[in-house]
Amino acid sequence: MTSLTDHAVREDDGAVEAAQQAMRSNRSLFNQGWSFRTKVTAFAELGGSRGAEWTEVHLPHDALIGQTRRADAPRGETNGFFPGGAFEYRRTYSAPEQDAGSLVLLEFDGVYRDAAVFVNGNLAGTHAYGYSRFTVRIDPFLRFGDDNEIRVECRTSLDSRWYAGAGIYRDVHLIVKRPGRIVHDGIRITTPDATGAEALVEVEALVENAGPLTRTYRLEVALRDDAGVPVGNSGSPITLLPGTTGTVHRRLHLADPALWSVDAPHLHHARIVLHDGDEIVDTEHVTFGIRSLQLDPTHGLRINGEPVKLRGACIHLDNGPLGVVSMLPAEERKVTILKEAGFNAVRSSHAPMSTALLDACDRLGMLVMDETFDMWTQAKSDNDYAFDFAEWWERDVEAMVAKDRHHPSVIFYSIGNEIPETGTAIGSIWGRRLAEKVRSLDPTRYVTNGVNPFVAMIDTIVPQMKAQRSAAAEQPGGGVNTMMAGFGAMMGRIQASEQATQRTEESFAVLDVAGMNYADARYELDRELFPDRIIVGSETWPSSIVGNWALVKADSRVIGDFTWTGWDYLGEVGIGVNRYVEPDAEAVTGFSGAFPALTAGCGDIDITGIRLPVSYFREIVFGRRSEPYIAVGRPERHGQELAVQTPWAWTDSLGSWSWPGFEGRPIRVEVYSDAEQVELVLNGSSLGIATVGAELPFRAIFETEYAPGELVAVAMARGLESGRSVLHSAGTDISLSVEVDRSTLRSDGSDLAHIAVAFVDESGVVHNTTQRSMTVDVSGPAVLQALGTGATSTAEPFTANRCTTYDGRALAVVRPIASGSITVTITGEGCEPVVVTFTT
To answer: pLDDT, tens digit, for every residue of 681-727?
Structure first.
């Protein structure tokens, strides 16, 4: 968990950001003062229907996370059994008289979905896609010097394969620009030459004269490093006729620049000021990074001249108990934990990231593959974006690139995910259109696509799948698990087939990097067939990391691996959850979970930020952990037959030696290690020495009986100890442990405090088998934003102040909404309450 010291640094960053915000008075957060309700039309109200009451909310806000989940929700297994619906938001805006004649925009970082923006009852703009940033011009509809009603409508229904939430779930900004102005999104900063000795920073600013007279403006550019030290400045006049635009180009040469990298994420800041005589008429502030990218088959990917292999995590865009709400504190916490787990790259599957998440990746040093779409012209859900794609795709690509182009963390644009059209000639035309559009907007980064040749041949796959199901059912003990056990092998054969080679060749050829989903069977094959093809494993089975990482290390053309997934997510319920044959239970016929299943259950890290055993295994395979990790199989499942284990699943193990009630019962212990041998010692007595990799790679396996006490794993290489780890059984005493990630909070609604709660003994050992009720009460100017656990299946809502711990743990998230002292009281069943205070 991030230390308070780290957060103190970020609080200083927040002060800098506040100062920067004050400087650019043309741009301000527009998150406060909103109300929300389930939508009802005026005609429905006229007919007697009663709409829901308006409730005050603080943006960003997920309209769906507080809805009651239902077992009968249509296609509930896809979105966690949350119902769809239509929602509306409103707030009052008092438009200053002096802004009359200015351009006034509302910038929405994300509204899910089919947004319609009204000003004083008049439609000001619409936006179809739920993930891309968009702006709406509102000054034609404002009454300056008076109050105005801003209303936003949105809806969701059967339009996503995962939990997409609903509502205004990312930041909103109000932008006011005078007739002489820098065009919105009109700044481009690039670093075409960047070394540790010198860098060239090119700044382009598009300036507009919307006034009635010819004007000569002056544009000034000032660069500072992260410490606020000036490092460069330049300026130029620009004369514009009425109603025209022009571009100012400035080239600034920096000596000894601090380069941005994963390990040293140095940022720079540009202040661009437009003068009309002695008056400042517009100001923009842009944060960027100075770094170079190179890509070739011989050296692979290089950043600042250094080879980099991508230790990647696919992530969906929700924040677990928060729903899809994206706020910088939550995103920074997520990126921090992912980095601690050994990842250096994330893929935004399968839609563009929020600005908050990109900012977190910039600040903390995490590489990004930002992705556009999960579908093009062929739908994957009943009402998804495929119906809007042909009309909207170009604007949404433009929006993504405009948002991303100053984020040094972004090194790839992905134009899609598992698009069936990539296996057709016409589909490759669409791929080329998207790729060339991206390149025209930003030639400084690389274009990829998460191509799955299996999906690209979906028209021929269905008969084979039917045959496999039938064959599996006819075998003794056959069924879905037998089919799934061979699914990966079958997919590999199809991926590497000559037909797949032919059908995907053109779609791969339009890319800079061939993104391959579950297609590791092609890596060595394509070395011969396409020697110039550079590959990234854009999505892979978590259980395949050993073989995949060996391929990444062995071949310079294969630049990385992105597991599905680094962080668990809401929806696609149960795809990574092991399910067992239960007495008297109905036979399992699929790999999705039944209500109240909530999450996919396939993350290295659960939705509350707890690292699971697979996370430590991956860290060892990456070569970034020498200490062995003890993973203990849950004794209640020992010897039980699996009904379903998909390729996304790991074992049900836990890093714990606290299993009361199972004394003397058989238990399986796996020690993850890169050593040669591991000795397991229980209460001072050796349980034997096992060879690492004898049964499974990077694992030493022991079958023993549970006895409480101290369990030690000693890793040995060449007969010498190379590392050890220890687990202790929890004692009989139980109390509440509370850890907070920060104690001082901003009061404007943009901050969060994460409170990790656990039932522990006097030594701090977690009682993982203690599932008890706990409550969280907040007093003062704050709200309990969310409360939940990492349970993959639960009927408990995230919006209540009570929950039942899972594996002994829970997470509470508190959001300040005004200045003052905040008191949070955590009460656990059978324990003394714990009180935490915060200042704002």
So the answer is: 999 999 999 999 999 999 999 999 999 999 999 999 998 999 999 99
| CATH entry, 625-655+659-728, from 2.60.40.2250, 1.10.8.140, 2.60.40.10, 3.40.525.10 | 2.60.40.10
- The CB-side HSE value for 745 (13 A sphere, CA atoms) comes to 32
C-alpha to C-alpha distances, 442 to 1, 303, 355, 466, 699, nearest whole angstrom: 36, 18, 18, 44, 45
pTM above 0.85, yes or no: yes
Instruction: Output the CA angle 237-242-247, nearest 5 degrees.
Output: 40
Q: What does the pLDDT look like over 652-673, one tens digit per residue?
A: 999 999 999 999 999 999 999 9
CATH class of 180-288: mainly beta
356: Cα within 13 Å, side-chain hemisphere: 24
Residue pointed to by tokens 């369990």: 711
CATH 2.60.40.10, domain 735-839, yes or no: yes
| Burial (Cβ within 10 Å: 0-12, 13-18, ≥19) of residue 834 | middle
**CATH superfamily placement of domain 23-176:** Galactose-binding domain-like (2.60.120.260)
Peptide bond into 804 cis (omega under 30): no
Distance CA 670, CA 725 (A): 12
Rounded Cα distance, 808 and 802, in Å = 14
Q: 322, 378, 385: which is closest to 350 by C-alpha?
A: 385
625-655+659-728 and 735-839: identical CATH topology: yes
Positions in the chain whose pLDDT score sits under 70 = 1-25, 45-51, 462-486, 584-590
Which of 394, 384, 331 has its CA nearest to residue 402?
A: 394
